[in-house]
Here is the input.
Amino acid sequence: MRMDISTKVGKLHLKNPVMPASGTWGYGEEYLDFVVPEELGAVVVKGTTIEPREGNAPPRLAETPAGLLNCVGLQNVGLEKFIKEKLPVLKERKAFVIVNIAGNTVDDYRKISSALKDEKPVSAIEVNISCPNVKEGGISFGVNPDSAARVIKAVRKECPKPVIAKLTPNVSDIVSIAKACLDAGADAVTLINTLKGIAIDTANQKPLLPNITGGLSGPAIKPVALAMVYEVKKATGAAIIGVGGIESFEDALEFIMAGASAVQIGTANFYNPNVMPEIIKGFEEYFIKNGIKSMEELIGAAVL
Amino acid sequence: MRMDISTKVGKLHLKNPVMPASGTWGYGEEYLDFVVPEELGAVVVKGTTIEPREGNAPPRLAETPAGLLNCVGLQNVGLEKFIKEKLPVLKERKAFVIVNIAGNTVDDYRKISSALKDEKPVSAIEVNISCPNVKEGGISFGVNPDSAARVIKAVRKECPKPVIAKLTPNVSDIVSIAKACLDAGADAVTLINTLKGIAIDTANQKPLLPNITGGLSGPAIKPVALAMVYEVKKATGAAIIGVGGIESFEDALEFIMAGASAVQIGTANFYNPNVMPEIIKGFEEYFIKNGIKSMEELIGAAVL
Amino acid sequence: MNYHDERQKNKIFFGFREVIEIKEISLNTYILEVSLSPELAGSAPGQFVYIMPKVQKRILLPRPLCIVDVDKNSLKMIFKVKGRGTGYLAEVRKGENLSLMGPLGKGFETITAPSVLVGGGLGVSPLYLLAKKLNSEFGDKGVKAIIGFKNKAEAFYVEKFGSLMSNVLVCSDDGSLGEKGNVVEILEKNFNGEKVVYACGPRPMLKAVSVFTLGKDAKLFVSLEERMGCGMGACLGCVAKIKTENGEEYLRVCKEGPVFDGHKVVY
Amino acid sequence: MNYHDERQKNKIFFGFREVIEIKEISLNTYILEVSLSPELAGSAPGQFVYIMPKVQKRILLPRPLCIVDVDKNSLKMIFKVKGRGTGYLAEVRKGENLSLMGPLGKGFETITAPSVLVGGGLGVSPLYLLAKKLNSEFGDKGVKAIIGFKNKAEAFYVEKFGSLMSNVLVCSDDGSLGEKGNVVEILEKNFNGEKVVYACGPRPMLKAVSVFTLGKDAKLFVSLEERMGCGMGACLGCVAKIKTENGEEYLRVCKEGPVFDGHKVVY
Ligand SMILES: Cc1cc2nc3c(=O)[nH]c(=O)nc-3n(C[C@H](O)[C@H](O)[C@H](O)COP(=O)(O)OP(=O)(O)OC[C@H]3O[C@@H](n4cnc5c(N)ncnc54)[C@H](O)[C@@H]3O)c2cc1C
Ligand SMILES: Cc1cc2nc3c(=O)[nH]c(=O)nc-3n(C[C@H](O)[C@H](O)[C@H](O)COP(=O)(O)OP(=O)(O)OC[C@H]3O[C@@H](n4cnc5c(N)ncnc54)[C@H](O)[C@@H]3O)c2cc1C
Ligand SMILES: Cc1cc2nc3c(=O)[nH]c(=O)nc-3n(C[C@H](O)[C@H](O)[C@H](O)COP(=O)(O)O)c2cc1C
Ligand SMILES: Cc1cc2nc3c(=O)[nH]c(=O)nc-3n(C[C@H](O)[C@H](O)[C@H](O)COP(=O)(O)O)c2cc1C
Ligand code: FES
Ligand code: FES
Here is the structure.
């Protein structure tokens, strides 16, 4: 018997709550040996900008205790190539596509949403106002409720598809940012992007990454992500996609109970390419074992 | 040959750069089987408040990947008993004592500094405006430059001893908080206190800690702490005590090169009670091997 | 007191010990025997060791385990596989080295006789060394043991108690071993006005023993469990609420405990 | 192309393989031999595997290692202990299971003969399987190998190359083994107008080989190293700057590489 582990994230209905985190699963083509995009709740593609970007100079990665620092810097093929080359493949596969978008200015976000609004295979837009690895835009929008709202409003106005705001944890008060985005028309929020971090190369007396700072992901950040999911759920009741350090079904369940309606898996794909199917199976088994009828019973169950 | 690994933190001259982090080493009495307080650069005692505090209900701890969540909630013997019972022991031992203080109101901080100003064995005051586990005061002062400055000013005015502001990482802009504290008269800043986190007890569908949130410490947070040390050093040049996830000499060296003049060790004491002497020895050996004459050569060496 | 004494390196051991034996002795429950050190040789009943599972995948802190027995050459612990830490611990093999720290905490006081030991489930384990001590101090007649398990599959050390002392009552929740019933019921039926009761097991059991012994004018000592950080009294992570002269206070299970006056614990 | 094919489970292996042998073959350098799988059996010269040290204290990501040899039953890698990951890897023992993924990346193309292989230090290791393949495709005369090490203590596989092919030039920086000098000097002295050069080693060495071969009108293939995240082309963590029709682009070492046209790499 196949269990119904479908879930709703705002207006989105997903067949299961598991999807890759943007930037960690390319365009769904890279992991075909292990996972086919159409078996996932959704596929969130690499952060996409209007123009192609070359990204930051290598080395771009540094391992830390139970964590990973990256400063990829939004290297991506650009909007045009994405629509021409990447999207058709995902469409053919009938994948449920969420496009993560980024820009330097509010107008960039507006333009890219406008270009995506008529692309049928795109089911939703995830607005990245939280990238710590680019000079302009990115995170700077996400640390302030007003600028966050401005970006979301622009996207909202342009594009009738569901809009999800992806927020940075590098803030004093995540609730106020989430509220601003919801008030500006976001259907849901994705929590969290990476934490700002540094590693020092002591042998050469300099930061290990040429970009100096990187974004911290992986199991290390799980408690921080859970806290933000919990607090935003409690304060707003919003639909949330939880992300940060998930590497097992148990972890995913923590996020669902803390208030997430779906989860994204990032870094764990790198050391266990089967992790997403494993989590999907975990939900099915858990539903059977505990007689759960609907994901609704679990979402936010631990929020007091 | 004994190397000179002494260091200066603002006006403080320490014989070595290694000290325990407040709240992780009690009053220096608990670890006597392994370390005597007088061999350390300083001893930072448990956060002290005017009245004794009973702290939060247990369980107070939860392990996370390479991290530890705690919600002790400033349980401490109170100012009077600290001065009467704990301080004399440290004085006899000629330990270099830094008292970590906390309060609900600015006036609390003022009163406690006033009471400590004439206590000879107290070498400096570390002002905790960053405790995430208490209802009032604590972290709320530390997330805003103005309130942070108010606390530091009050302490500064009251007490001629060196004042160190201990800051929380749960902020959008650590530099602005550090600047406000320095402008208000702090001699140095300690970076960082714990990150806010949550763990979910999925079997019982509730947060694992009765306090719901806890403070995340341990190796997991090291990259975040390093980033804050680096950025504050670069922006202000201030004297910094670095803390967060240090568990080896190598880690301590990363902090020194990122701009810290001294380091504190917290969680690592719990799984390796010898960690502080090991780090001190690590510095001595490194100085010999690399012909280092003074800690000054290393402090901030990686700051570009 | 002279505070300038050298570092007191002699009371607590910290370092590696060799695994002498590791064996499953009942359902998911293992006995672990490690080589001794002078400090560990001095372990008292009720004390514990802080032990680091060797394969440390995502494990940060050591795990506390009671001392079950200590003899000329070795120290024994019994543990049940609960999560990752104990899971990895079950994978250590004879001859490997294991990092541990101990003995820690304040153990049982053996003040007077006669006494009853009451152990439920894993709570049985710290009572064995205690029984040995009571037996040697007050003789076989001075001590009685009541040990209970969920069922026969989960039982351990029943024969060991049997060969140590004559007065052993065994029970199980489902009657598959010894008398059917829990240890509190067996205590109530078999209490003979003993002066001291020593209990270890789940909180509700300890509470019931406390209620019963209060009415009988017997002293009660219980051993508590709490999640630990340092195991050394420094972090205040492991507290339990205890009645003291100051009212009710959070005391440290690793330092003032794990053994407390059972009538002072706020259950 | 039919996108609705079943998951393409057949090209990359991911799971546990048994350690057949692990041995120190030169200073801090180990050979690791693991059991085969059908996917691994198809490994091409220049490809790599992504291998997870078994004891994962604070280790998150797998470590990339080149494939040195693959025969009927086993796959061989050679690694040097650099940090924690390779340190733990050196502790695995025969009979244990090791988690790994592979073969990954795009290997060397064996397009034409004659060719020269130039390997410096650990860079020697991927050239062995390549030499085998060139030898079988173009015969012993079609291929020459120049392998160099810091000194004799660090050298490995010298005899293996010797028994595989007749044309092997060995050198070391200090002259303790073979000719004194680095591989680039030896290449310059011994270049005979070969059509292809295959090189692996430190960046400055690759750059020097590139400069030399450009002047000689020989094709050059080099194998690059970068820190990796996914090993699968998904994270864009492992890029190197390469000249393409679009100018200069960051290409993925794990996917478009690790072997690149040596004259297109921006050193
Ligand atoms: C003083 C003392 C003595 C103990 N003696 C024994 C014994 O002799 N035999 C035995 O089997 N068990 C004993 N326990 C309980 C044992 O320590 C836990 O079962 C074990 O730590 C669980 O670890 P884990 O990694 O398998 O589980 P996980 O759930 O993965 O552990 C995660 C964290 O929770 C802590 N934790 C989980 N359960 C408990 C618990 N019940 N008490 C304290 N901390 C817990 C762990 O130490 C760890 O920090 C004792 C506990 C204490 C405090
Ligand atoms: C395609 C490829 C093939 C390789 N083949 C071999 C080989 O056959 N034999 C061999 O000995 N080494 C090889 N290396 C280098 C080897 O992967 C590193 O030496 C090893 O990862 C170091 O890990 P560590 O944990 O010991 O060091 P640490 O310094 O503790 O590693 C920390 C992190 O840095 C990364 N890292 C460190 N140095 C390197 C490096 N030079 N290249 C890439 N990542 C690095 C690690 O993977 C890890 O993520 C190869 C690297 C690549 C990219
Ligand atoms: C290599 C890498 C690249 C990333 N690129 C993006 C990106 O393009 N857009 C984005 O919103 N987040 C990006 N992220 C953040 C992840 O989507 C995710 O929020 C974060 O990694 C936390 O999840 P994890 O701990 O499961 O990896 C990236 C993360 C990594 C590790
Ligand atoms: C159990 C525990 C108690 C703590 N109590 C205090 C405290 O009383 N005052 C304070 O300023 N910081 C307190 N901290 C924070 C530490 O001093 C330190 O800033 C933090 O743990 C990060 O360092 P670490 O990763 O080395 O542990 C406490 C931390 C822990 C784990
Ligand atoms: S575990 Fe730290 S005080 Fe008990
Ligand atoms: S390692 Fe992820 S793209 Fe190469």
